[in-house]
Structure formats: C-alpha cells, structure tokens
C-alpha cells in the first residue's frame, strides 16, 4: 500500500513539475484558464474538448498565432497563410519527423530507430506504391472473406447490425495485414486484436508520457503497456513469422511478396539479426494505416448509408460499368469509380483526421507570414477549417456532398485534379510537402475495393430511426449502423 501511495504521490509531483516547466513561454496569447493550474486544467480539458478550445482561439485571435495547452504541452496554432511555408520546409527550421517523435513519444512507444532510419516510409513511397496493382487481387479476396464473416446475419435473421467503427477497424486491420504479412497472420484473431490494441493505445500512452521527465518515460511505458496495449502481445506471433521470412530469404527462397518482404529488402543487418527490432517496422506501419483508413471508411459508409436508393444505384451502376469495361478489379477500373473516389475526398475535406493538421516542431525560431516570431521547441499546427471550408474554394462548405468532386470531374479536363489522393493547399488530410502520406495510394485502393464490394453485395442502412451520419469524432466513439 505504501508503495502505491509513494508512486501516486511521485507521479502527481512529477506531473505538476513537468506542467510548470511546459507552461506557455511563447509570449503568444493562449486559450483557457490563466496560470500554471489553469494550464493543467485546460490541458486536461483538451483531451475531450480540443475543438472547443480551438474555436475559442480562432474566435479571439483569428489568423494570429495562439497557444492551446494540451497533454503534450503548449501547441501553437498558426494561421492558414503559413501553409506554403510549412509545405516547403526542409525540416531545418520547421521539422516534421520530430513532431511525430513527440506526438507519439516514438522513442519510448516504439524506438528511436524509426526516426533515425525511417525506411518504412521509403518502402511505402517506393516499393509498396509501385506494387499497388499486384495487391488488388489479395485485397479483394480478403475483403470478400472478411465481410462474409463480419456481416453474416444470425440464424433465422435476414440482416445484421454491426458497430461500424469497430467493425471497420477489424476489417481494415485484417485486409491490410493480408498485404503486409499474408494469409496466416491476417486471419489470426489474437494477432489482429493485439495489433489493433497496440495502434489504439500508442497515442493515449504518448499523451501520458509527455508529462513525465524523459528518463522515466521508457520504464513507465514498459510497465503500463505490459498490462495493456504495447508491442509485447502482437510480437508473440509476429516475431516467429518474421524469423521464418528472414530464414527463407537467407536460403535464397522466393517467398510470396508482402509488404514485410519489401521491408526486409531495406532493413539494415542489425535489424535482420534482431527480429524484435524489425518487427517494430511492421507495427509502425500497422499503426499508420489501421485507424486512419478506418476513420475514413466509417465516415464514408455512414454518408453512403444516408443517400437515397436512387443515388446509391447511381454509384453501383458506375462501379459495375467500371468493372465490366476494365475486366474486373484493377487499377484502371478503380480509377473509373469516381463517385466513390469523390465520397472519400469529401470525407478528407469534411472530417480529415481531426480539426488541425500539418503538425510540426520548430527546431529554430520561425518567422510567420505576419512577422510573428515563434520560439524553437514548440509544436505548431494549422487549423483545417479555414482551408477545407473556404467558400471561395468549396461552395456550400458546411454541406457534406458525396458527389462534390465527381461533378467537378465531369466538367473539367484534368482527371487527377479532384481525385482522393491529390493533395494541394486546400486539401491536406494527407499532409503536404516532403512528408505527405506515402500510404494514401494503398489506402485509396483498399477503401475503394471495400466500399465497392460492400455496395454491390449488401444493402446498407443506418440503424432504426437514424437519418443522418454522426458528427465528427462520434464515429470513433462507436455509434452503430445497420448493414
Ligand atoms: C486514409 C488513410 C490515411 C491518412 C488520412 C493518412 C494521413 C497521414 C498524414 C496526415 C501523415 C503526415 C503527413 C504530414 O505531416 O505532412 C501521414 C504520414 C505517413 N503515412 Fe499515412 N495516412 C493514411 C494511410 C496510410 C497507410 C495505409 C500507410 C501505409 C501503408 C501510411 C503510411 C504513412 C507513412 C509511412 C507516413 C510517414 C511519411 C514520412 O514521414 O515521410 N499511411 N499519413
């Protein structure tokens, strides 16, 4: 009991101390209550009401920089006129990798190698993107199988009601891991459960760890994640699998081509010699792909389920035509599914992954467009509303329109301009610049196959009484949809 009390007291002391150290010294105005205690209270409030704090700042300070206290310390929100500056940055002043290190506490939740030698990003950008076409049959096969299991009605019933976000996360984890690791592990329910839990808890643990001195973060993560989340459980089956891959490669055997094989081709000798290190690359990519795609897929499906039968038939018709004219699922037919593509792009515009984006860390003082100087060491981000809801770019921005971009593509010559994976100043859910998401082409292929298969083989509807898609992050909080 004494031990527990000492631990709690030390933790509270450390938290207060760390908070005092991290309180706003930028000289910029900040939202929330004043003083160090106010900082703590506002940071706690940011866990559940970040959007309200952001709105408060935007209402008070407009495009001027201001600070929002968060669990990871002071976050400086900068105006949208700085987008080009952030996009063109080469990490020497406005740095992207460090913001990932900080927001995920990467050194402690994974390891420092992920940032020092980020070959998982290189593999995604090169080998994986080039091989997208060859993954299509496998993604389709796993989609068919996993959906027939997930959406099977109970005996004697004609339909099944499923919690959408939870189901989508499971489907994405399984289908993505078919490409990542092959048929055995992607159907191993224990592995899927553990890898999803790892991905879900990294962000939560990272927020907690940021409040502790650096030297305590790794032991705290080790202790806490040994009980819940963490890499230990998923690596129990992952490491033996990777050892098998490494052994096959050592014998010159040509194994089936999975993303893990691509990673292996780029892995340095010390990671090949230590599969525990190598396994973290697979976990890192799982982290990057599971929740991002599940959030997009869930929003898309909620909105598709809100359409009229006539509109849904229009989408189905376009999918069937694309499949007939191109001989089934392939890159050409997927690119002809413009209405699905448009729905996904509208999800990116309307929701993205949250209300802010282009998160970076300043490694030197940065001069903003209006002359404001932000000191080094601070996290910065851009509020997406000003970009994604600009009425001069997106007429009626508050309306979610599945066909917003497919209608534009009918009238314009350029085929890629309004496509889901095309990033630009006013469309940044995948980031911008040299670190823009390299996995977006895989995500687009996977989500389109899943949605197309679902629309052609199932009738979908919202649960009884619901007329419209849930708002914002209600989706992640787990509202149900009938299917
Ligand atoms: C709808 C799905 C996805 C969304 C919305 C998304 C979003 C993002 C964002 C916002 C970034 C940071 C960009 C920046 O700061 O400029 C990023 C980076 C990254 N994403 Fe994605 N992502 C998705 C799917 C995926 C998938 C499926 C993979 C892998 C298969 C992946 C792999 C990566 C990697 C490796 C990076 C780091 C790139 C670098 O540091 O150079 N993502 N993603």
Helix content: 55-70%
Broad shape: globular
What percentage of amino acids are in beta strands?
Answer: 5-15%
Please work out how many helical segments DSSP would assign.
22
Average pLDDT, to the nearest integer?
A: 91
Which structural class best describes the helix and strand composition?
Answer: alpha+beta
Task: For the record, give the distance between the C-alpha atoms at the N and C termini, rounded to a whole number.
Answer: 50 Å
Largest sheet: spatial strand order: 1-2-8-5-3
Q: Find the count of extended strands (DSSP E, 2+ residues).
A: 9
> What hetero molecules are bound to the protein chains?
protoporphyrin IX containing FE
- Name the quaternary structure: single chain
Q: Main sheet, how many strands, which sense, barrel?
A: 5 strands, mixed
Low-confidence stretches: 478-483
Q: Any idea what the radius of gyration is?
A: 23 Å
Cofactor: heme
Family: Belongs to the cytochrome P450 family.
Protein name: Ent-kaurene oxidase
Keywords: Heme, Iron, Metal-binding, Monooxygenase, Oxidoreductase
């Amino acid at each position: 009991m004494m031990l527990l009390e000492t631990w709690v007291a030390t933790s509270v002391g450390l938290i207060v101390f760390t908070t005092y150290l991290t309180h706003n010294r930028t000289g910029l105005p900040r939202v929330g209550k004043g003083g160090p205690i106010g900082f703590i209270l506002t940071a706690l409030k940011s866990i559940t009401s970040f959007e309200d704090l952001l709105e408060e700042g935007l209402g008070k300070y407009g495009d001027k920089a201001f600070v929002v206290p968060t669990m990871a310390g002071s976050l400086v929100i900068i105006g949208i006129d700085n987008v080009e500056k952030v996009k063109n940055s080469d990490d020497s002043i406005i740095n992207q990798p460090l913001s990932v290190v900080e927001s995920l506490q990467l050194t402690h939740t994974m390891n420092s190698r992920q940032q020092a030698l980020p070959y998982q990003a290189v593999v995604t950008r090169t080998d994986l993107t080039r091989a997208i076409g060859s993954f299509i049959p496998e993604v389709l096969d796993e989609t068919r199988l996993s959906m027939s299991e997930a959406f099977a009605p109970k005996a004697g019933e004609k339909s099944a009601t499923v919690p959408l976000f939870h189901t989508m996360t499971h489907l994405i984890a399984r289908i993505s891991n078919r490409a990542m690791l092959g048929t055995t592990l992607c159907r191993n329910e224990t592995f899927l459960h553990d890898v999803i839990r790892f991905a879900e808890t990294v962000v939560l643990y990272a927020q907690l760890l940021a409040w502790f001195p650096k030297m305590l973060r790794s032991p705290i993560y080790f202790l806490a994640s040994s009980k819940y989340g963490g890499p230990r459980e998923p690596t129990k089956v992952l490491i033996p699998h990777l050892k098998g891959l490494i052994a096959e490669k050592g014998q010159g055997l040509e194994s089936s081509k999975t993303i893990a094989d691509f990673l292996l081709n780029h892995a340095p000798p010390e990671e090949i010699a230590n599969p525990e290190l190598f396994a973290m690359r697979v976990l890192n990519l799982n982290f990057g792909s599971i929740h991002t795609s599940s959030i997009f897929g869930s929003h898309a499906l909620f909105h598709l389920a809100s359409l009229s039968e006539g509109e849904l038939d229009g989408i189905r018709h376009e999918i069937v035509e694309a499949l007939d004219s191109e001989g089934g699922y392939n890159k050409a037919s997927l690119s002809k599914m413009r209405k699905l593509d448009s729905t996904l792009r509208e999800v990116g515009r309307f929701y993205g992954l949250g209300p802010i984006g282009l998160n970076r860390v300043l490694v030197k003082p940065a001069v903003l467009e209006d002359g404001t100087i932000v000191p080094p060491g601070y996290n910065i981000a851009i509020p997406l509303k000003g970009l994604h809801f600009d009425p001069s770019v997106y007429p009626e921005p508050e309306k979610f329109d599945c066909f917003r971009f497919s209608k534009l593509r009918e009238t314009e010559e350029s085929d890629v301009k309004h496509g889901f994976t095309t990033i630009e100043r006013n469309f940044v859910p995948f980031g911008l610049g040299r670190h823009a998401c390299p996995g977006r082409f895989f995500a687009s292929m996977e989500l389109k196959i899943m949605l197309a298969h679902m629309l052609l083989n199932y009738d979908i509807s919202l649960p009884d009484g619901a007329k419209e898609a849930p708002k914002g992050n209600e989706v992640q909080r787990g509202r149900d949809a009938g299917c």
